[in-house]
Write a structure and sequence with these properties.
- This protein is globular.
- A four-stranded mixed β-sheet has the order 1-2-4-3.
- It is α+β, with helices and mostly antiparallel strands.
- The two termini are about 20 Å apart.
């Protein structure tokens, strides 16, 4: 995920409990990740999500992140052995040098 870069921060698997969604918690967490990344001298923040998480995609897009990469993941398997739909991994980027 770091692409062999020392100026890239990665945000992976940010989650907010359903009882606290749409209350500003996610925005506060993302803002803090951006602040920390800038303080550490990073020039970009790379964020991972999936195409099946439409709410997260809308959240990151609304906060200025741009989608720059996508790749297919193999189908996930349930406990009973039935495959469910494969996901597309999405990478969103925030430029920190603005």
């Amino acid at each position: 995920m770091l692409d062999r870069r020392d100026d890239l921060a990665v945000l992976w698997d940010l989650r907010v409990h359903p009882d606290h969604q749409r209350s500003g918690v996610g925005s506060a967490l993302l803002d803090r990740a951006v602040e920390w990344s800038r303080a550490e001298g990073m020039t970009q923040l790379k964020i991972e999500t999936q195409d099946t998480n439409v709410a997260a995609c809308r959240f990151y897009a609304a906060r200025g992140a741009r989608r720059r990469a996508a790749g297919h993941r193999p189908p996930r398997i349930r406990q009973r052995g039935r495959a469910i739909a494969s996901e597309v991994q999405l990478h969103w980027w925030i430029d920190l040098c603005t």
